[in-house]
Design brief:
The structure is a single chain. By secondary structure, the protein is α/β, with parallel strands linked by helices. The chain is built from ten helices and 17 strands. The strands form three sheets. Strands 14-13-15-12-16-17 form a six-stranded parallel sheet, with helices on both faces. The protein is globular and about 60 Å long.
Length: about 350
């Protein structure tokens, strides 16, 4: 096991001892660090290494990764195993390992990259190392009285344009002379999104994996709220004017819907921007948000690459439709409006 490649989820794991006995006598938990051997290359031909670079995988390679879950509608859904297996799967490029449960049709032929679980990585006292950092408990009203505004970036689905929207919104606020930070709150470990927003000019970027979480899929609301509170503590240290927060996946995804319907989380943001890939996704998303008593200050997303789709939608909706060029204008801050309505939430889903 010489030259073990280290995935980015394990970037804070400096020293460890391999324990093969525990690998056959202890079921893993999310965040548990393991040593894996690549058996067959499939969907994932590389990993994001601890230094942020891409490292190619070859059959027979060993790497340090972490068990976790993943929800990706255009690839597959996978979970931490609940029984011992001969083979496991790479669920994400950031080094998340688990068992695939559902697969998108386009990924069925190639299948996941399969690996063998060789050993747990253990510490000085023999404990299994876990990437997840201990969270401070949140305060009930944390972030309510604040000197900064929080803008939530949500979308109709995976790849609807949420991150690009967030990044160009950051550009617009920066062009207005504001200090702007970014949090990628939910998703699966891979720094592409926060790297993009940082390149757009954000003064500070952070995501859930910086606190050691391989993903946020299948966590309960209380832990997610604690996670957000801890991310927020770091994101406001440099006293931003604005904080752009992105939630992965679509409005109907379990954790996304759970958070948007949660009264405590709703206190944490001031405005929402909604991204989608087509006009019907825009109309359906607005209706879904309306049932949650939420109104975005604008719509953007992949569909805005088509002037024809924009023209169609402008005749139907009564909120601004913003292209990337619109988002990066300094005047975008003048469009920001509160997202909350004082009425009962309708049932969603």
């Amino acid at each position: 096991m010489n030259n073990i490649k280290k995935a980015i989820i394990c970037k804070d794991v400096d020293t460890f001892d391999p324990n093969q006995y525990l690998a056959n006598n202890r079921l893993p938990k999310a965040g548990d660090v393991g040593i894996f051997k690549v058996i067959k290359i499939g969907k994932h031909t590389s990993l994001q290494a601890a230094n942020g670079r891409t490292t190619t995988l070859f059959e027979g390679d060993y790497f340090l990764g972490a068990f976790g879950n993943r929800y990706a509608t255009v690839v597959f859904r996978g979970e931490v195993p609940v029984a011992y297996r001969d083979e496991y799967h790479i669920l994400g490029k950031g080094g998340v390992v688990g068992v695939v449960k559902q697969t998108h049709k386009k990924a069925e032929e190639i299948g996941p990259t399969t690996v063998q679980f060789v050993a747990f990585a253990t510490g000085e006292t023999g404990q299994v190392l876990n990437t997840q950092k201990k969270l401070n408990s949140r305060y009930p009203n944390h972030g309510v009285k604040r000197n900064y505004k929080v803008i939530l970036s949500v979308g109709s689905s995976m790849d609807s344009g949420k991150t690009t929207t967030a990044g160009f919104l950051v550009r617009g606020l920066k062009n207005a002379g504001k200090k702007v930070n970014y949090i990628k709150f939910t998703g699966t470990v891979f720094t592409k999104d926060k790297d993009f927003v940082e390149a757009c000019g954000a003064d500070f970027v952070i995501d859930f994996s910086d606190l050691g979480y391989p993903s946020t899929f299948l966590y309960e609301t209380d832990e997610l709220l604690d996670l957000y509170s801890n991310l927020l503590d770091r994101a406001i240290e440099n006293k931003p004017d604005y904080l752009v927060v992105e939630i992965a996946d679509g409005l109907l995804q379990k954790e996304t819907k759970m958070l948007l319907m949660n009264a405590e989380f709703r206190k944490q943001f001031d405005s929402i921007i909604y991204s989608t890939g087509d006009n019907l996704g825009a109309i359906g998303g607005l209706e879904t948000l309306r049932k949650m008593a939420l109104t975005p200050f604008a719509i953007s997303g992949r569909f805005t690459a088509s002037p024809m789709l924009i023209d169609e939608l402008k005749g139907i909706v009564n909120i601004p439709v913003l292209t990337l060029e619109d988002l990066e204008q300094e005047t975008v801050s003048k469009l920001l409006k509160p997202s909350h309505k004082n009425k009962r939430l309708a049932k969603v889903g």
